Amino acid sequence: MADAADTSPILRDLAIRAAVASRLRSVSEDRLLESILEAAVALFRAGAGSMALVMTNPERLEFVCAAGPETGDIVGRSVGIGEGLAGYVVQTGEAIALYRRKENLAALRRMGVTVSDP
User: Fold this and answer.
1) How many CA atoms lie within 13 A of 37 on its CB side?
2) Which of 4, 13, 58, 75 is deepest in the core (most CB within 10 A)?
């Protein structure tokens, strides 16, 4: 059995490798996420949808795919937990469905959610 001095560099190396591996996603995984999102957007007849993954160091949401004509250039952007609508949902654990986005903006602002006008 190795002593603590011998295992420390090994553990550090494993931690680095795990951090790198967690940042890598294959093309097939991205395509799977896109197809799930596209199906959800179609099912709910939504104007748009996006999917973000919770990342660490620093904690944030990273948008990995989007579907629908109203998504803009969200893919690749990231926001802090608690920022914007998606960050609010992650922070509180409360799902929010916007049926009439423009009518809901004022209500969201009253809840303390930072949102921008379309």
Assistant:
1) 21
2) 75
